[in-house]
Design goal:
The complex is a heterodimer of chains A (212) and B (715). In chain A, β7 and β8 form a beta hairpin. Chain A has six helices and nine strands, in the order αβββααβαβαβββαβ. About 4% of the residues of chain A have low confidence. In chain A, 31% of the residues lie in helices and 17% in strands. Chain A has two domains: 28 residues; 177 residues, Glutaredoxin (3-Layer(aba) Sandwich), CATH 3.40.30. By secondary structure, chain B is α+β, with helices and mostly antiparallel strands. In chain B, 43% of the residues lie in helices and 23% in strands. Chain B contains 20 helices and 24 strands. In chain B, the strands form five sheets. In chain B, strands 12, 13, 14, 15, 16, 17, 18 and 19 form an eight-stranded mixed sheet that branches. In chain B, strands 1-2-3-9-6 form a five-stranded antiparallel sheet, with helices on one face. In chain B, α4 crosses α11. Classes of the chains: A alpha+beta (212), B alpha+beta (715). Chains A and B meet through α1 and β9 of A and β10, β11, α4 and α11 of B.
Chain lengths: 212, 715
């Protein structure tokens, strides 16, 4: 039979566990979770301005982590023009497409504003803007791990897609037509107001060259 | 030699006559990786199975990837072009390592790895033909930056007719085979907490049922899942020793498993090799994981604990009530209940107090039992409710007790007028003392009768701290005492008690049969433990007991002299039963162990004298130094040394298998190990026939490797 003493100890344990659990749960809003508000951030853009996610409410936002030297990014840019085509179609629809570069200074993919803009021009890429995240804050906030790693946020500010650009994890351009185009699919769903069919998929690519 | 020259000539010729883009070589190199296609044989037999391996030599700090590359990266792929009719399986992946770059964790290989593929050669090949396997291999090699690379390799092997001339093949293959994950000799269980509604995250617990002695050997334990998203690959995996073994707690990832799905992957154990900490080396072994996942029913560990305790208490209570129905206890209860009726002249309060006294007697006895259990547990013994049942002597004693009780119930003899008579005089004492001792008696008598609920509640309780054990036992006692207590508190229930009559005697006699059944079951358990000879001993003992009972009963009402003769005779018979049983059961058990050993084991205990004697006779000997706490020793024994092919090879070569058990750090074995510069186990030695120096085998064994060593003819 439980004595009163042991019952008290158990009760204390339960209360302590519940408190700790709640505390652990609190920082959750600073994590990228499907169907929850996308974590807020602000970053320096290539044109010198500061972009705030909160200001973009009312518009669909696409976040694309990129590194121009990564073979997987090259697959979708130089070798196929896949992402530039997506950018063109999306921006024409009023979607805000943000390229984010989280490579630390001195590491692969880290470029200055002028280089970033000229690279986009060379590759025919038309993102709405390029954000420089050299200290990796935004990348770690979203737990971005690869380039490319894609996130789609709807007009209400809810994260509706995160993961890879498509379903075949290769660096070969001929695999693009065979793959399921997750991001294209997600944007179409958001436009139609329907549910995104594959909201969380495996991202693939080179690892993001964070500072640490 | 011939084959090498032939291959070289073949290569040179082809290089001359072939377009450079279509490589015909079994080797290709990039700046980071030197790749080579190797085979487990030097020649192919039609219709046979063999391995092809892609060996990658990777420059320092760079790595290639496992089947699940981790947070980023890409696994190596091989596209085969084989002769018609040949089939290739999926890549067999050696156990991976992990590499972290900031928040990104990848799984893969560095410096040297061989990826295996099992190939089945077509049956229609002719000796003298060639078998050419071509492969287009794609991999991603990364240090910080990643480079996808592709090479084309091709390997040509001659075809031979018989299996004897297929040859040895590349040592890379044998090395890779030892690095493949093996079926786990330990049970694996996987549970997961329900996903947090906000974050979608859960906690996955993977438990490896390692015995306590082996847990301290584990330096590192890491789980590599085959699929993306099952776990947070960058999160630490917390290792904890629990009563069930070693538990890994891992945070789930983006695609956690749901109930009913299976967790698949590789669990990599790194075990300390030697005793001295100054030169520790690690033995790495991968265990294959494929376990169904259960979702825990509660969220926080604290509430789970509480509900667990409450469940156990309830089960114990119910179990205690059911114990009343067991033939061991029921006679006591029924007689006590009847005595209630006979004590009708007492006031209701007094009757109630009798009930309380009985309950206290039961509770006190159970508390004593719990105390003994707690003390024994503290002493480190492995116990359960029927703990005594591991000893054949106890089993036979209880069988005799059941039989004797059955005889008593059948009416062959009576002890003091109560069904189970020991201490019944105390129980029959009028007053509260009598009720108290009846309670004690009920407990003593209930002990051998294991009710099904008991095992669950007690099994749970024994893993808990002392307080919980006491609580569960008291709950059990309360259940046992409850019916009688209720009867005393609500006299109205007594009306439900059946009126005394001839049915009572019939009932008593009927209850003898479950007791006989229990005796029969116990004799069956005894035979399992102590061999077939124990059957005659147990049954003979029962015969003598029945004889003793008859003599005793027959002389109860005779003259005083016969009374003593009867009692003395019965006593002598019982004493001889005890003596014969004790002696014979032990012998029988020893014999049974030896017989078991001979039939299921194919080894002898190691001693240097025995080894030298065998070597002097010129016989081949295989020596295995192992210890109960050594994990790789056990894995090797299960995976390699118990394999049917290996046992057949031992028989074919007439090889004596000596096993040295170093669990207690036997000094003779320690000295022997030192001779081979080892300070720990496992150590495997093979002395071929008429050889003085042994071949030392690696510490990770595969069946094929052992057979090859045993059958090697050239040294």
């Amino acid at each position: 039979m439980l004595t009163i003493q042991s019952a008290k100890t158990l009760l204390t344990k339960m209360v302590a566990a519940s408190v700790l659990f709640t505390v652990a749960v609190v920082p959750v809003w600073a994590e990228a979770i499907i169907d929850k508000p996308a974590p807020a951030f602000s970053g320096a853009a290539a044109d010198g301005s500061t972009i705030n996610l909160a200001d973009l409410k009312g518009k669909t936002v696409v976040l694309e982590w990129t590194n121009n030297e990564c073979p997987y990014v090259k697959k979708h840019y130089d070798l196929s023009g896949n992402i530039p085509a997506l950018q063109k179609a999306a921006t024409a629809d009023g979607v805000v497409w943000l390229q984010i570069i989280s490579s630390a200074p001195g590491k692969q993919g880290h470029v200055d504003a002028a280089t970033a803009l000229s690279l986009n021009e060379q590759r025919g890429a038309v993102p709405s803007n390029v954000i420089f995240d050299a200290d990796g804050t935004i990348g770690k906030l979203y737990n971005a791990q690869t380039t490319p790693h894609m996130f789609v946020i709807n007009a209400e500010g809810t994260l509706v897609y995160k993961g890879g650009i498509d379903s075949i994890k290769s660096n070969k351009a001929e695999d693009i037509p065979k793959a399921v185009p997750y991001v294209k699919e997600a944007l179409e769903a958001v436009k139609a107001g329907s549910k995104v069919p594959n909201p969380s998929t495996a991202p693939y690519g080179c690892s993001i060259k964070y500072a640490s | 030699m011939n084959s090498f020259l032939w291959r070289l000539a073949h290569c040179l010729l082809l290089m001359v006559f072939t377009n450079a883009a279509h490589a015909q070589s079994d080797r290709a190199a990039t700046e980071q990786v030197a790749a080579q296609l190797v085979a487990s044989v030097a020649a192919v037999q039609p219709g046979s199975d063999f391995y092809l391996g892609l060996n990658q030599q990777i420059i320092p700090h760079w790595h290639t990837y496992w089947v699940n590359p981790g947070d980023s990266g890409n696994a190596t792929t091989i596209e085969w072009s084989l002769p018609e009719g040949a089939t290739a399986g999926d890549i067999l992946w050696p156990s991976p390592s992990r590499f972290s770059l900031g928040p990104v964790t990848n799984y893969g290989y560095e410096s040297n790895v061989t990826l295996l593929t099992k190939i089945t050669a077509p049956a229609n090949l002719q000796p003298g033909d060639t078998f050419t396997a071509a492969a287009v291999v794609d991999w991603l090699v990364c240090e910080e930056e990643c480079i996808p690379q592709q090479v084309e390799l091709s390997l040509t092997l001659p075809v031979v007719g018989d299996s004897a001339s297929v040859g040895q093949g590349s040592p890379y293959i044998e090395q890779a085979l030892t690095q493949l994950p093996v079926a786990s000799p330990y049970t694996l269980t996987a549970t997961q907490t329900p996903a947090n509604t906000t974050t979608g995250r859960a906690q996955l617990s993977l438990t490896l049922a390692l015995p306590a002695a082996q847990i301290s050997q584990v330096k590192e334990l890491w789980f590599y899942p085959y699929d993306w998203g099952r776990i947070q690959q960058s999160s630490p995996q917390l290792m904890k020793a629990t009563a069930q073994g070693l538990e890994l707690t891992i945070e789930t990832g983006e695609a956690p498993l749901t109930a009913g799905q299976s967790l698949k992957g590789v669990l990599v154990i790194k075990e300390r090799d030697s005793l001295s900490e100054s030169e520790p080396s690690l033995i790495t072994r991968g265990l294959e994981v494929d376990v169904p996942l259960t979702i825990a029913s509660t969220n926080t560990p604290a509430t789970a604990e509480v509900s667990g305790v409450i469940n156990a208490l309830l089960l114990a209570l119910i179990g205690g009530v059911i114990l009343n129905l067991m033939p061991c206890v029921f006679p006591v209860l029924s007689i006590k209940a009847l005595s209630l009726i006979s004590h009708a002249n007492q006031s209701p309060t007094q009757i109630r107090l009798h009930g309380v006294a009985y309950t206290l007697g039961v509770l006190a006895s159970f508390a004593l039992l719990a105390l003994i259990l707690i003390l024994l547990k503290a002493g480190g013994a492995q116990i359960g409710w029927g703990f005594q049942f591991q000893s054949p002597l106890f089993v036979v004693a209880v069988a005799y007790l059941m039989f004797a009780v059955g005889l008593s119930l059948s009416g062959v003899f009576y002890i003091g007028g109560s069904a189970v008579g020991v201490g019944s005089s105390l129980a029959e004492k009028p007053g509260y003392g009598g009720s108290f001792f009846t309670g004690v008696l009920a407990t003593i008598v209930a002990t051998p009768c294991t009710a099904p609920f008991m095992a669950a509640a007690l099994g749970y309780a024994l893993a808990q701290p002392a307080l919980i054990i006491m609580a569960v036992f008291l709950s059990l006692g309360l259940g046992l005492a409850l019916p009688y207590l209720l009867l005393t508190c609500w006299p109205r229930l007594q009306r439900w008690l059946p009126r005394p009559g001839a049915w009572m005697e019939r009932m008593k006699q009927l209850l003898a049969f479950p007791m006989y059944a229990a005796a029969i079951w116990l004799v069956w358990v005894l035979v399992q433990q102590a061999g077939i000879n124990s059957l005659i001993i147990a049954l003979g003992g029962m015969l003598l007991i029945a004889l003793a009972a008859w003599i005793y009963n027959g002389t109860r009402y005779a003259s005083t002299r016969w009374n003593y003769v009867g009692s003395f005779g019965a006593l002598v018979l019982i004493a001889s039963v005890v003596a014969i049983t004790v002696v014979s059961i032990n012998t029988s058990r020893a014999q049974a162990t030896v017989e078991n050993a001979a039939s299921t084991q194919h080894w002898e205990a190691f001693s240097e004298a025995r080894l030298n004697a065998l070597l002097a006779e010129g016989k081949p000997v295989f020596v295995n130094f192992t210890a109960a706490w050594c994990i790789s020793c056990l894995v090797n024994e299960r995976v390699a040394l118990s394999d049917a092919n290996v046992i057949a090879a031992f028989a074919r070569g007439d090889i004596t298998y000596l096993k040295g058990d170093w669990t207690n750090r036997d000094p003779e074995i320690t000295a022997f190990l030192k001779r081979f510069n080892r300070s720990g186990v496992p150590l495997y030695l093979f002395y071929p026939a008429a050889a003085s120096t042994p071949q030392v085998l690696p510490q990770i064994l595969t069946p094929d490797m052992v057979v090859n060593v045993l059958e090697k003819t050239d040294f």
